[in-house]
Amino acid sequence: MFTEAIEAILRDRATPEAIRAIENGGTPASIWSAVEEAGFLELLTPESAGGAGLSMSAIAPIFRAFGRYAVPVPLAQSIAARALLRDTGVAAPAGTTTLAGACRRREDGSLEAPQVPFGMTCDHVLANVDGDLLLLDAARAERKPCGVHGSLSGTLSWRFDDIPAPLAANGEEVLLFSAAIHAAAIAGAMDRVFAMTLQYCNDRSQFGKSIGKFQAVQHQLSVMAQQVASAGMASELAFSGAGAVPERLATAIAKARTSMAVPLVASTAHALHGAIGVTAEYDLQLFTRRLHEWRMADGSEAFWNRMVGNAALTQEHATIADFVRTAPYGMAA
């Protein structure tokens, strides 16, 4: 029910034309206000506090929808921030809030948050700083764009005097939630990219028949479909736990697997589209650019695969099959 309602808003507001306008400096207020006024920022807020009280598994399709529409505003991050602030006694601030999973302190005491999603446009940043949870005012930060065409990510820096006291010691949950969100966004964007590619292959004719009828093209489409389906299942794993935030190992597997699929899915989509696929006027690049950006966000597959590998090497399960079957869910063999 919530997914369909949100998708109705996104179909109307998060159009390719709107995305291009926002990338060129336009305001995302139309998308943000529509979701905020509908109360959808409180989907993870308990019913006792006026929210919807959704579980992790129920929120996953919504986060995928944000990726499917390449939403250029931190809706998922703002929803997650409310869940992360739940036990701190601090209310979520007005305006957009994004997540920074890996910040570092400089020798002079200042703070740097590299490559923050929506760092160039957000109002606040909920950050992980050495395991502490900090709520930072983005208006006080020095912002540096990442330099990638159309990206809203940026590196933010705060002076020592502008850094507030920690709110709690659950900072690592910011990284996990942010990675899980990006895994879901990758899966959603891949759904869109595959649908666009399949439609193009059915519509484009060569030698008297659609190119989708050629065996070589069908082979590429089938491999692409396998990767998209696998990424979709992996993204759901990150939200399969019963807790209030994504599980650590399940998130690692989800982010690693979805990131691994990005190069093949994006390159195959552009190859099958041919010359039209590399143009700025065609909508495909709105999604493939984000796939590559989200692949690197919060660490690429190399970072998360290392975490999974370390867990497997130190596991107490009898076999690797037992590890795969139970460990991501925090279960005993």
Summarize the entry for a quick read.
The chain is of the alpha+beta class and 333 residues long. The protein has helices spanning 2-13, 16-23, 29-37, 56-68, 75-84, 172-203, 215-238, 248-273, 284-296, 301-313, 320-326; strands at 97-100, 104-105, 111-116, 124-129, 132-137, 142-145, 154-158, 205-206, 209-210.
Task: Draw up the topology in text.
Blueprint: H1 2-13, H2 16-23, H3 29-37, H4 56-68, H5 75-84, E1 97-100, E2 104-105, E3 111-116, E4 124-129, E5 132-137, E6 142-145, E7 154-158, H6 172-203, E8 205-206, E9 209-210, H7 215-238, H8 248-273, H9 284-296, H10 301-313, H11 320-326
Parallel strand pairs: 1-4
Antiparallel strand pairs: 2-3, 3-7, 4-5, 6-7, 8-9
What level of helicity do the residues show?
40-55%
Average pLDDT works out at 94
Straight-line N-to-C gap: 36 Å
How does CATH name the architecture of the domain at 182-329?
A: Up-down Bundle
What pattern of helices and strands is seen along the backbone? Answer: HHHHHEEEEEEEHEEHHHHH
Unreliable spans are: none
Given the helix and strand composition, which structural class is it? alpha+beta
Broad shape: globular
E-strand count: 9
CATH fold-type name of the domain at 182-329: Butyryl-CoA Dehydrogenase, subunit A, domain 3
The CATH superfamily name of the domain at 182-329 is Butyryl-CoA Dehydrogenase, subunit A, domain 3
